[in-house]
Amino acid sequence: MKFIDEGKIEIQAGKGGDGIASFRREKYVPKGGPSGGDGGRGGHVYVVADRNVNTLIDYKFVHRHRAKDGESGRSKDRYGRAGEDIYLKMPVGTVITDATSGQIIADLSTNKMKLLIARGGKGGLGNIHFKSSINRAPTKFTLGEPGDHLDVKLELKVLADVGLLGLPNSGKSTFTRAISAAKPKVADYPFTTLEPSLGSVRVDHSRSFVIADVPGLLKGASKGVGLGLRFLRHLDRTQLLLHLVEIPSSKELEEIKKNTDEILREIENHSLEIFSKQRWLIINKIDLLKDEEKDKFFSEIKNTLSAKHDRIFFISALSGTGCSTLTHAIMAQLDKNNTKEHPNEN
Ligand SMILES: Nc1nc2c(ncn2[C@@H]2O[C@H](COP(=O)(O)OP(=O)(O)OP(=O)(O)O)[C@@H](O)[C@H]2O)c(=O)[nH]1
Ligand SMILES: [Mg+2]
């Protein structure tokens, strides 16, 4: 099974600016000397490990990363400005390999690690450098050098931040599809999902997290019924569990309660470590309720079920209702956990 987030990008450092040839033109000096300045250096490209970046999702959308070229030199001994460097932020743990040779270029193993991955080209020389006793008016100058160009592959062994729990058909895969880049299969029969899959969820331009969609659990799973609990180890490392419970066709509160407790019991029997993780109850398929039913239904569910979960959310994975509120709440929670773990950083 693949638990890898990956991407392929092209990196182009800036070209050096060209040197130029020019001559001083002053009012009372008939033949001015050379005054063409040097071109500026092309921008470098750095990669930086940043623990606030969790996924490579940004690199799936933008493939080409190029730093600015250096400016050309100018007359009156003026040098061209260097091209601005760029810094590509990547998750800690990203391994960068050369796409052609397969050689590892960098292993961003620790937070804030910074590496110059593509060097900007040197600026060319202006004709001020070529003056000599025999040539007082040199026209020679040199061009800027090209910047490094690389095609690289990015790979990150992913650990999910958030895991899903729930009976078959509760809508785990639909939810994963709704909020993440992953597209697990969805169907109205149990055990559509047979293997866990991971999706990266982008919350805003700089923050994202990883969610694990896993096969459904059944009553008796801890004794091997259905697919059993063998996939639950993928939830071992998650920080937050979302327990999805669907609104059944009967719309009976009792049935919702029974379905919720069933999963809790299986988890409790299987692993106290997973059971004691932070867990939110997500009531899914609220599009099946009539508008006038909702308020009463929601408050009844809150009264009956809130004891065993840290928070409750109501969503429709199908229509998207409530999904954005939920993803923002998840991100805020992960950020909070993160600052607790690293109180002195950032
Ligand atoms: N009306 C409605 N149907 C939904 C919603 N979410 C999921 N469904 C439907 O419920 C069925 C099961 O959805 P899945 O996402 O495959 O459920 P799952 O929990 O991943 O199921 P397994 O992989 O079998 O464990 C599908 O027919 C979905 O279209 C929802 O919010 N509203
Ligand atoms: Mg599924």
In short:
This protein has 346 residues and is of the alpha/beta class. It has helices at 57-61, 172-179, 253-270, 272-275, 291-305, 323-341; strands spanning 4-12, 45-49, 64-66, 86-90, 94-98, 104-107, 114-118, 149-157, 162-166, 197-202, 208-213, 240-246, 278-284, 311-314.
CATH architecture group name of the largest domain:
3-Layer(aba) Sandwich
The total count of strands amounts to: 14
Q: CATH superfamily of the largest domain, please?
A: P-loop containing nucleotide triphosphate hydrolases
Provide the structure class.
alpha/beta
Report the β-strand fraction as a percent range: 15-25%
Describe it:
With 346 residues, the protein is an alpha/beta fold. The chain folds into 2 domains: 154 residues, GTP1/OBG domain (Spo0b-associated Gtp-binding Protein, Chain: A), CATH 2.70.210; 180 residues, Rossmann fold. The chain contains 6 helices and 14 strands. The strands form 3 sheets. The chain has a 6-stranded mixed sheet with strand order 10-11-9-12-13-14, with helices on both faces. Strand 10 and strand 11 form a beta hairpin. It starts with a strand and ends in a 5-residue tail after the last helix. The model has no long low-confidence stretch (mean pLDDT 89). It binds guanosine-5'-triphosphate and magnesium ion. Magnesium ion (MG) binds next to helix 2.
